[in-house]
Every structure is written in structure tokens, then in C-alpha cells.
Amino acid sequence: MKDQLAVIDVGSNSVRMVVYPTAALAAPPLFNEKAMCGLGRGQAPGGALGAAAMQQTIDTIARFAYLAQAMGVGVIDAVATAAVRDAANREEFLARILLETGIATRILSGTEEARLSARGVLVANPGARGLVGDLGGGSLELINLDPAQENGIGQRISLPLGTLRLAANRASDGAGLDQLIDHGLAQVDWMDQVRNRDLYIVGGAWRGLGRLEMARIHYPLRVLHGYTMPAARVASMCLLFARLGLESLERIERAPKDRLDTLALAARVLGRLLHRSRAERIVFSTHGLREGILYEHLSPAQQAADPLMASCRLMALAAARDPGNGLGYGHGDGVRLTAWLAPLFPTESVDDRRLRIAAGLLSDVGWRIHPDERPDHAMAEVLHAPLIGLDHTQRIKLALAIRFRYTHRRDSRWAERYSRLIEDADQVWARQIGQSLRLAHTLSGGVMALLGQYRLSLDEDAITLHCRPEIRQFVGDAACKRLAAMARSFDLPSHIVADP
Questions:
Q1: C-beta of residue 402 within 8 angstroms of C-beta of residue 378
Q2: Res 326: pLDDT
Q3: Nearest to 128 by CA among 278, 21, 279
Q4: Side-chain-side CA neighbours of residue 326 (13 Å)
Q5: Which of 70, 92, 264, 429 has the most CB within a 10 Å radius?
Q6: What are the residues whose beta carbons fall under 8 Å from the beta carbon of 13, sequence distance 6 or more?
Q7: pTM value?
Q8: Does residue 136 contact residue 117 with C-beta atoms inside 8 Å?
Q9: What is the pLDDT of residue 411?
């Protein structure tokens, strides 16, 4: 598959390769593996990389190169960040990588690393604005997401505040580390422009903190991307973890074992960044530098794609009954369903319309499942799918809508764990969308072109299904029941009218 792209990220703490199918921005990776090589561990500012860490890194890249060749990867883009960027022996190290693995590795400047990280965040969070923080072992990148800029990326800076860099100051007490971090953050002279906005955070150590918090509160959704927390709660979490020693962290069952020695420092950096930025919310992003590099390899058309629509189409295609004739997936079906249901949602927001299109694309994902299991199983499919371009509230709304596509019943204790995380109005929206899709599939038998024979109208008194007199007999009892169930979700009666 020569259109595959492998990104090798030679970081200060880990070395990772991700293989992407470059034809689709939203496609899940074909391969994703990391090794904790610790290139920046114990590295003095401007000092040389250690011999053992360099050898482990070279061995890891050699393995990745071997696998990429076996996979038939067309392009390998290898980049190195802070530890290599600042190393006295970087040229010697890069020459060794090329000689021993055949992989040419380019060094990213701090501002270029920041730009690519921000691009990766925007890829998965379209319309995001505020501050991006990407914490690695060697550096902290901060970026202003500025919609006034043509590419959405404003000022950016790279600071020597990575967790491994700070670990070299372990002799300092907590107050000394805070002072060191605050001194670095004081260099961000544009911070006032992003105060009181969202903070999008990227980086393995910060992801570890997010997963620990999800486990602590028994949060039912395990997908970290798009998880949003109020800043006050994150600040309290950071205060707690920043004070914990290694022994205490080791006793936490879900603590990431490969990052235990840097977890407290990551919490301290995040706490000081929250204090400085006065962010209102924290949004976890699993997309960053590597996805930013992927974006650079895409065509303009691929770059312009809505990531949610793209990932929904891929999911629908994988579940399609018959990809050859377009049943149950694809842009055409989503457009037909969106247009057909539009009269029921005359005042919907732009975001809800986008979710409604996504629900149309995913409205047949449960067809293979036993009918008794379809509602909750289809909902679980959407909850756990690698969708991007949406936050957790939107993910739950979308998943709940797909559940109601297969049932009118609301008595699921399993589903209630998730529905309680969203507002009542969002639950109503999900039920209305799902019941509407259920009616559409019943009337059409999944052949969406047949929806053109029917029309819906909404007024303050009722929902009416219109059809021609000669096809009135084809509506059927099941469709009548589902029309009535759909209308009940709007608190309205329903009628069928045969228009001349």
C-alpha cells in the first residue's frame, strides 16, 4: 500500500511510529507503537545525548523501518524534537540513525514543533480557539489558536519546561520548581490574548493525568479525546498529584507505569499553566504533533474535509450491507436523510445540523447485530469508535441518537450511565433524531432514494407524513407505529395525508 505514511517521532522521552492510510485524515492508524528510550533523561542543557539511550533509539528506529518496509509503507517522515534539537552531538547521532537504519531524520525547531502540534489539535477539534499546551520530556510548546489567522494558528513558543528537563532540578523544593516554571511562562508575552478561554492539552504525561481522573470519578466513557473538565477541578487534581512521591504513585492502580517518575512534574506544570492562563476549561486532545505532520502530507481536498463527517463515513463504510450499491453508508445517504428530516428541525443550530448528518451516516451500523441487542450495541459502537471532530457531549448525543434509531424504549440502565452526562434538552434531541431515522429506514427499507416519495411537515399541532394516494397503501403498520412514536418525542400527534 504505497499511499501509507509512517511518522516516526523521536521525542525526548519516547520514540513512536504511527502508520496512517494517507487517503483519509480521519482513518484510524494501521500501526501505533512506542518505546520509552529516554533520550533526554539526565541531559544537561546543551549537553550530549547518552550512549545507551542513543543505541536504544537507533535499535527502535531500525525495528520500525523493518516493519514499515514489510507493510509496504510509501513514505516515512521521521522527526526529532527537543532532546536531539539541543544536543551537542546531534549531527553525529542523526548520521548514525541514517547509516544504521536508512532513515533520514529531520530536526524540528521549537516553533515548528509548536505549529505542527497546533495543527494536529485543529485537525481533530475544528473551530477550536484558545491555548494549546503540548508537554513533552524536553519542552513545553504553547500556541495561540487564533481564528483571525488564515490557518487558525497565531503566536507560538517552545519553552525548556519538559518533564525530563525539570527532573534535573529535583533538588529544588516545590516552591523552587514553581518559581522555575513561572519564570519560563513569563516569557509568553501574548498570554493575555488567550486568558479565560479553553486550554487544549497534548502529551503523554498529561494524558495519564486525564485517565487517572476518569478512573477516580468512575467516568463511564474511556475515550480520552474530547474529555473536558472545568479548570477548578483540574487545578485541584494537579495540586494533589504534584505533592505525591514515587511510592505513592506506584500504589495507584491505573497510574501509567512508564511515566510515574514524571507524572508529578507534569501535574505541577499544568497547575502553573492554569494559574497563568486562567483557562476556564481543559480539553484533552490525543491529536497533536504526529497528526499535524500527517496533515502536511494530505491533498488540499483531504485537508478541507470535516473530520467528523470523514470518520463517520469510514465507520459506515466498514458496516455497510452492500458497499457496491451504497446501502447503509455514504455521503449520498447522509445528504438524503438530512434533507428529508430537515422540516422537523427548522431552528436547529449549525452544530446540531452537523450531528444530524453524522447520525444519518451512522444510522445503519447495527444491522448485523441480533435485534434484541441492537440498541445498546449500536450505541456502544459509536461511543467507542475512533471518531474525531467532536467533544464528549456531542459523542454521547450522537451515540444516544443511534440507540433510538433502533428502539423507542428508554428503560436501559446501561445507556442511562451516559445519558445522565448530558443535558435533558440533548437527550430529547437524541430521541427525536433517532426516532426520525427509524421512521426513514422503515419507510425506505434502507433504499434512501424511496424517501423522495414521502414528505414530512411540522406545525404546532402535529407532525404529518405526506405521500401520493397511490402509495398510501405501502406505508404499512410498522411505519405508522414508528411515525406515532417519533411524533411523541416531539410531544405531538401524527397524521398521514395522501396529497393529490
A1: yes
A2: 44
A3: 279
A4: 10
A5: 264
A6: 36, 37, 38, 39, 40, 41, 136, 137, 138, 162, 163, 164, 204, 259, 262
A7: 0.91
A8: no
A9: 86
Q: What is the pLDDT at residue 253?
A: 66
Q: Residue 342 has what DSSP assignment?
A: G
Count, residues in the chain: 500
Q: Which residues contact 462 (CB under 8 A, 6 or more apart)?
A: 487, 492, 493, 494, 495
Flag residues of the chain having pLDDT under 70. 1-2, 22-24, 170-172, 253-260, 322-333
Q: What is the DSSP string of 110-133?
A: HHHHHHHHHHHHHHHSTT--EEEE
Phi-psi domain of 430 (left: phi exceeds 0; alpha: psi -120 through 50; beta: other):
alpha
What is the grid cell recorded at 93?
Answer: 547521532
Three cell numbers, residue 183:
519564570
3-state per-residue secondary structure call for 193-245: HHCCCEEEEECHHHHHHHHHHHHHCCCCCCCCCCCEEEHHHHHHHHHHHHCCC
Q: What is the pLDDT of residue 130?
A: 95
Q: What's the pLDDT at 319? A: 82
Q: Could you give the angle at the alpha carbon of 233 between the alpha carbons of 136 and 125, nearest 5°?
A: 55
For residues 107 and 93, give the distance between their C-alpha atoms in angstroms, rounded to a whole number. 11
Rounded-to-integer distance, Cα 396 and Cα 380, Å? 10
